[in-house]
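Re: Re: ligand-bound prediction request (bumping)

Still looking for help on this. To restate: I need the protein modeled with heme C bound, output as structure tokens. Inputs repeated here so nobody has to scroll up.
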Amino acid sequence: MECLCPPEPARAAEPAPGGRARRFRALRKVAAFGTMSVAAVLVSACGSGSGQDSTDDTALVAQGMQIFRFDTFGDESQWTDALRIHEVIAAAVDPATALSVGLKVDAEALPPAVVQGIQNGGIDLHSPDTTIALLKLNAVVGVQGKVETIGGKDTLTRVGITCALCHSTVDDSFAPGIGKRLDGWANRDLNPGAIIALSPALSAATKAVYNSWGKGKYDPRFNQDGANGPQVIPPAYGLKGIHRITSTGDGEDIAYWNRYVGVTQMGGHGSFSEPRTGVNVTNGTDDLITSKLPALQAYQLSLEAPPPPAGSFDAAAAARGQLVFNGAGTCSTCHSGIEMTDANSRLHAAGEVVSEPEPNGAPSYASRSATRQYRTAPLHGLWQHAPYFHNGSAPTLVAVVQMYNTSKSLGLSSAEMADLVEYLKSL
Ligand code: HEC
Ligand code: HEC
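Reply:
Sorry for the wait, this slipped through. Here it is.
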């Protein structure tokens, strides 16, 4: 379609505290229903000029949600046949243990009798059989189990994982770890390394690497390049309009990275090949991934960054902090435009980021990637997903600002830094 798009500068306005960008996105949605001005409708039709932004197809988005939550792409080959995680679950993973390694339970999948049983203690949260019952109800977020009756007993025969394992959490509305799904929110309680290390099929040395990662982190390249440098699990929301995906901007669209993870990390059936890194993997003889990528991508693009909770920041300080962001802090030289990133026009050398050198002597993460550079991170929803930077080297927004002030010799006063933090909390 021929687009009469507004010139780029129209998109470069800085969002106000509290998120003008979000209101702008909301406007675009309203515009789709034809109640807005002609100009707004044109913006809506144009997006940022790429097919990646076509999230208007409700059916496609709904299909994508099912894939995101429930599709294993046949990765039971990895989690059951190779890693034998189903045996570990059946033998030793009661719900209390599952919750302690960060697995989440979808309260909406629980029938009333089970809800009552959890509430009055009638259901034993210290029995692996209860975990199997929850899997049978399809209530464990990001884990798909096949439960069959063998010898009169419910038996877990296959297990696989979905995208939701790492990129969904729950709102804890029922109990800690049990509640309504929050898709796109990174599960920073999840300890994927510890879960994989439960496999009886791995060597002690490999288990030691997996056990070294900790909560909320995962190294999506370790099984390809052998280096150990875990990454913070990032949100899968707020990516609309951004055409460099992952912290190193490896892909131009989300589907590129979904294929990478689906094949090389989850173990789904299909192929991924990347000459820039030499990764070339094919699992199975069928392809259970390619046809699902458009819907999966549409769903992720529909997920907006969550707005900051009311009262979670000081609006006056945030307004002053915005001036620091655009002025003395020089932040907006890279965190520019509506999405607060220059990713669509350039990436940055490792020497420009404040998050290197990597912790624990790990090699530069950029050096392991396809681009060998970093993408300026988008900043909406920051309040929600500490720790910060690709390697989690800043535990808080205060730490982020201190790191910039020191490494870039910004000379900000403590009042300016405090205001800047309030602004970041408002995004
Ligand atoms: C075992 C945990 C895990 C699973 C499962 C997983 N991811 Fe990720 N995902 C990560 C990590 C870690 C990164 C960060 C990679 C990087 O920046 O190099 C990431 C990055 C991403 C990004 C890039 C975000 C950005 O800011 O550009 C998206 C989108 C994403 N994942 C979506 C998915 C989807 C969809 C699936 C299912 C096909 C999936 N992930 C499966 C851990 C996981
Ligand atoms: C030279 C370009 C550049 C400048 C200037 C810059 N940033 Fe960044 N910023 C980046 C890049 C690149 C990343 C991603 C680094 C990484 O993942 O380790 C990033 C990441 C971040 C993050 C982490 C986001 C997340 O999701 O973890 C925050 C917060 C941030 N920057 C805030 C700021 C603030 C505040 C300033 C000004 C004091 C600033 N940045 C100045 C390029 C820049």
